[in-house]
Amino acid sequence: MAASPPSPSFDNQTNQSSSSDDEEANARLESDIRERNEFTKRLRKRDDEQTKKKFKSEPVSRDPHRSKLSVEELRKKSRRVYLAARKDKKIHELEEELIDEEYLFKDVKLTKREEENIKFKRYALDLAHEHEKAQQMENIDRYHMPDGKSDETSKNDRYREDNRYSDAKANGQAGQNFEQRKWEDEVIHTALPHFGSLDKEAKSNQPKYDYILDEEIQFVQQLTIPGVNELLQYKEKSKINEHEDENKRKHRSLQESRKTLPIYRFREDLMNAIRDHQVLIIEGETGSGKTTQLTQYLYEEGYCEPDTENVEEEEEEEEEDYDDDDNIKLPNGKKKKEKKMMMIGCTQPRRVAAMSVAARVAEEMNVKLGREVGYAIRFEDCSSERTIIKYMTDGMLLREFLSEPDLASYSVLIVDEAHERTLHTDILFGLVKDIARFRPKLKLLISSATLDAEKFSQFFDDAPIFRIPGRRFPVDIYYTKAPEADYIDAAVVTVLQIHVTQPLGDVLVFLTGQEEIETANEMLLERTRKLGTKIKELIILPIYSTLPSDMQIRIFEPAPPGARKVILATNIAETSLTIDGIHYVIDPGFCKQKTYNARNGMEALTITPISKASANQRAGRAGRVAPGKCFRLYTSWAYQHELDDNSIPEIQRTNLGNVVLLLKSLGINDLVNFDYMDPPPMETLRLAFEQLYALGALNHKVELTKLGRRMAEFPLDPMLSKTILASETYKCSAEILTIVSMLSVNNSIFFRPKDKTLLADTARQGFFTPGGDHLTLLNVYNQWKDTNYSTQWCYENFIQFRSMNRARQVRDQLEALMERVEIEIQSNPADTIGIRKAICSGFFYHTAKFSKNGMYKTVRHQQSVLIHPNSCLFDQIPRYVIYFELVLTTKEYMRQVIEIENEWLRETAPHFYKTKKLDDDNKVKKMPKVLGKIKAELERNYS
DNA sequence: GAGCACTGC
């Protein structure tokens, strides 16, 4: 996908130079692609020449920036040339792809989704061609000059978004914003216009090709996301009673602040609704208090009391000895005793959320965290026998199904942040809906922030929706007038525009990755340096997940007086962390997304346009502490027509091996007809079944085998679990545990700072171990272990301490699980063949053979692939290799590779590889009929 | 000779 979405064509009426008439006619008539590309090139060349002339004849300016103009312009131009070339390349790729797909799948029945995908590609290509034509006919001004009164410029504007604006105005939406806009105008006109003057007259006197003006971007204000300000914002200070001790006072003020939350006013209605309905969809903005208050209200209403119907059947438990310091009294005065209380469970998609919310609730209820209020996340269970309110990650609840399939100890389940649609949440939906059918007393609350609660309601048999207005300040949304070709550049320009025209308040810029953040950082530094003391101080702070912790913390430090913070962030700032003090958000409209191609098992990270839901989430980040503004670097038309409503749920773009195994071990046999809110792609399910069968986790009747049951104990991909189980045979479980743990921390072991690439590479190569990358990882871990897990050692060897620590945690967990599957921990470090054979037992499916064309071919899909340049086998050519994963980056690469012998395949996976004479090539056995049946069933269901 | 968004068990 191209970095810039295909833009709509415009009706254009701008000047065409007469010399291009013939060419233009040709272009219209000639539909041949090659011709058109040639034509574009010629036009571009001519345009470039004109630009050059313009700059040659440009009068010398008194502006001090002007002296550096040519360098700047050259840089800009090269960027433009690069982008143009990239666009051509991308269009060409798209065309090829379409031709390929039409050829490849002409006789194949495609699923609806696949058909839509092709349709979309064709549509995108058409748009791109149209756009190209429009560009050829127009000497485009890249940016339009702002005049600060966006609502008046629409009169003779040729862009569609203005029509939309008028529509909005006709609908009265613009009227709602009147006050806001007045304030806005005042602010703009009182701001110091050093740079990017808003004075119309001054502007018209300047030459059109003026550098500074060329850099400005015009925004159109569209809508304001309303806030619920009212009195809710106002927190009444508790009257200080001198006789109250510190603790009580704190508790009292906490109780008072609970009452200021928006949800408080709806408590009674909400409780009535929950009493009357088994399933309720709760829609509320973040900050409405639902996550912290809902559980407490439910507790106060008595939802934790033991299930009286079952009391008689159970034996009386011994009285426990905690009554003395028990602070919790049920509303009717009974103390928690005798019978096990029922639990209120609340799931969160993230670990930190589960922890921090639990801590907050414990504080509000004045109990110790981990007792009545607790949380459970991977590696850490902070709950006890007496826990009645339990926060946990969604994956944790999913695992609880394994030990308690009906979740009998819960009286209420709250699935919070359901709109995020994580893989685990999606699976939970189906399971929880099912148990609600045979447990009529169980209450189910699905809590979501977006406006698509309807979908949840439909899924849960038309469950009622309860809406809680949020506590949020209004956010004004601005769109660009024209599409931006280079969104990093546009983002940088917008930051500077905000900095010189808007009142103080921090800026948050959403970019797609580390590289973009670094680029933007450099650009901003350079431009602010040039502006010198003309502008106030601008503090630029990057944030992304792999940034070292000490750097991450810096974003939370407040800006010094008179200065402004600019935070350049990845998607991490969209949901995972919240930064106070943000008044302005800049949203280029893209993010990186992992895609999974089940046809060849290849993963890729691609830059894709975000969804409307995501865009709104980003905008909301500007209105947490005060009214804010969000600048979207795309047109309102693009928002309306090119962005999907919601992001594709994770279940549709990820490998499902582990989930299928988990569901199988829960006794859910029919995964094809499982109650999915959105079903996963057929290919993904099929591949999961096929792999589980090949691994021996499923038998010919597609039933879970004993091996499969043991594999399901591990929170890992089935191939990794199988590797662990196979390590028993080769007596090297200790080594395999380490390797598996290292593999599961996501390629972030080696640290490679930009200014020390050579040193870092040398350090990495120092760890290389004969046999392959898995053994290299083992080597790294063991050396680290020998230093007693030293931080300093990591630093010296360009190893990421955080990743190593995580690997260690994973390893500890896996080691504990080994006991459950009754495998002894045995170490055999010298037997690298045994270690590799164990890996082979789990990953025989991921074999590639060197082929005549100088590339490797995967045995299963005959996909041409290469060894990743970071691999220690990169400059060797083993005949057979096993890879951990396939990734598509600039090329198709195998990442984490080991060398194996041909015979090992037949030894470790005789059921998968045909046994023939030695030296013969291994041929993959045909899959048994039963898998064909699954495929047929899948096809029936998906057609 | 590459290039890694973010979660989670």
Automatic annotation (TrEMBL):
Ranges of compositional bias, category Basic and acidic residues: 25-72, 136-167
UniProt KW keywords: ATP-binding, Helicase, Hydrolase, mRNA processing, mRNA splicing, Nucleotide-binding
Organism domain of life: Eukaryota
Compositionally biased spans, kind Acidic residues: 304-326
One BP annotation, GO: mRNA processing
Span of domain Helicase C-terminal: 494-667
GO cellular component: catalytic step 2 spliceosome
Residue ranges, annotated region (Disordered): 1-72, 136-177, 304-334
Reaction(s) this enzyme catalyzes, per UniProt: ATP + H2O = ADP + phosphate + H(+)
Pfam families per record: DEAD, HA2_C, Helicase_C, OB_NTP_bind, WHD_HA2
GO MF assignments: ATP binding; hydrolase activity; RNA binding; RNA helicase activity
Primary enzyme class: hydrolase
Keyword Hydrolase: yes
EC number: 3.6.4.13
Every Helicase ATP-binding domain range: 271-469
CDD domains membership: SF2_C_RHA
Protein name per Swiss-Prot or TrEMBL: RNA helicase
Organism, scientific name: Rotaria sordida
